[in-house]
């Protein structure tokens, strides 16, 4: 069944590396924004005959909303799509926004919390522009656990300016000590239209070289594996049975509906993206208009590219028998030269019925995937 994503664009402070459609100066719009999201959901419900399997509330920082707004959001969602029908309900949070009152509210309304820690080093957190310190991570985690929230993800970013293997592994090990069910281990990416991206273009910010990045990733993955976390996607590790169901749906090209500013949807072979401006989004929804800014049909060629790209992000990789059923040609035969070169380089493994990237291959996934197009 499809997934439901709701975008909450509010933040207490915008991070200098973030290119998401999030803002730290629009809190005065919160009431109107929540009202618009609920209206968009009610309109969408008229055509959502299948219902939804998962709910993911992302941002931004959804828990930057006050208790009144969060309660209104949950009430509006569940009055339209009953809570009992969702197998998994995730909300993103930052440590500094988790209070006892909010944790009680979350415990009553979600099954999973994804907390953006990014690092357990106070100096790294400061350089990242984060407004929490490492102590806040522990406090936030304990508050959530105290409310019996038993499925928690911690986000860690590696490849930071001046970071070496030792400091990166420190954050990995501290995350493991907390005992979350899931850990996301992301590489820092620079985007042009962000303060970090602009600094990098001017030569004022330099990230670690490829050798250090490879060492951090390989040793970080090994440490997580040793601690009982199984890798199931390039950046994601979980305890047994705790994979993020919502994200698995994305990687399997499942359908999903997005509500809110900048939210993307994929339904009935069509991709749509809402306007990124929260103000414009609110105006359009209030006027009874569609908030969709761009829309495109999924062509056979685009579907093929997405299929390869998304499957190769996962540890399971591609079932070549399924590939042949879907596309009516043999993956191994068509791409034999590429496959052979990747296997010889230790970047992929191929069997009779499967093709997947190795951990070393994951580090070059964008480059590798591009070879198939």
Write the layout of secondary structure elements.
Elements (H helix, E strand, L loop, with lengths): L2 E6 L21 H16 L8 E6 L7 H14 L7 E6 L6 H10 L2 E7 L3 H6 L6 H13 L5 E7 L6 H14 L3 E6 L7 H7 L8 H17 L3 E4 L2 E3 L6 H7 L4 E4 L4 E4 L2 E5 L3 H9 L5 E6 L2 H12 L6 E2 H8 L3 H4 L1 H9 L3 E3 L3 E4 L1 H4 L2 H6 L3
Parallel strand pairs: 1-2, 1-9, 2-3, 3-4, 4-5, 5-6
Antiparallel strand pairs: 6-8, 7-8, 10-11, 11-12, 13-15, 14-15
Helix pairs in contact: 1-2, 1-10, 2-3, 6-8
**Computed structural class:** alpha/beta
Terminal CA distance: 29 Å
Spatial order of the strands forming the largest sheet: 7-8-6-5-4-3-2-1-9
Instruction: State the major sheet.
Output: 9 strands, mixed
Count of DSSP strands: 15
Strand content range: 15-25%
> At the third CATH level, what is the topology name of the largest domain?
pyruvate-formate lyase- activating enzyme
CATH-level-2 architecture of the largest domain = Alpha-Beta Horseshoe
């Amino acid at each position: 069944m499809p997934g439901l994503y709701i975008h909450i664009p509010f933040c207490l402070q915008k991070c200098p590396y973030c290119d998401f459609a999030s803002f730290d100066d629009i809190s005065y719009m919160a009431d109107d924004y929540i009202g618009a999201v609920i209206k968009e959901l009610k309109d969408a419900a008229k055509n959502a005959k299948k219902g939804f399997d998962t709910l993911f509330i992302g941002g931004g920082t959804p828990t930057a909303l006050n208790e009144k707004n969060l309660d209104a959001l949950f009430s509006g969602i569940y009055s339209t799509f009953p809570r009992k029908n969702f197998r998994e309900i995730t909300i993103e949070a930052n440590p500094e926004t988790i209070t006892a009152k909010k944790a009680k509210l979350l415990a009553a309304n979600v099954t999973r919390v994804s907390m953006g820690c990014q690092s357990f080093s106070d100096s790294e957190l400061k350089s990242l522009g984060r407004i929490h310190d490492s102590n806040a991570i522990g406090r936030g985690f304990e508050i959530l656990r105290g409310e019996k929230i038993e499925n928690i993800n911690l986000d860690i970013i590696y490849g930071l300016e001046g970071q070496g293997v030792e400091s990166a592994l420190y954050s990995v090990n501290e995350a493991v000590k907390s005992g979350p069910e899931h850990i996301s281990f992301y590489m820092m990416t620079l985007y042009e239209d962000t303060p970090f991206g602009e600094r990098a273009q001017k030569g004022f910010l330099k990230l670690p070289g490829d050798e250090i990045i490879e060492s951090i990733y390989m040793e970080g993955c090994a440490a997580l594996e040793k601690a009982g976390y199984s890798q199931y996607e390039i950046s994601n590790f979980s305890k047994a049975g705790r994979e993020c169901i919502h994200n698995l749906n994305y990687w399997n090209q499942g359908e999903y509906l997005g509500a809110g500013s900048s939210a993307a949807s994929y339904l009935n072979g069509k991709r749509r993206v809402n306007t990124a401006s929260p103000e414009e989004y609110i105006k359009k929804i209030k006027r009874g208009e569609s908030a969709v800014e761009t829309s495109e049909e999924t062509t056979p060629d685009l579907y093929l590219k997405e299929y390869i790209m998304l499957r190769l992000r996962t540890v399971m990789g591609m079932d070549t028998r399924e590939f042949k059923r879907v596309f009516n040609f043999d993956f191994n035969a068509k791409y034999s030269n590429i496959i052979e070169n990747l296997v010889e380089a230790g970047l992929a493994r191929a069997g009779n019925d499967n093709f997947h990237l190795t951990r070393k291959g994951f580090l070059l996934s964008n480059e590798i995937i591009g070879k198939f197009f």
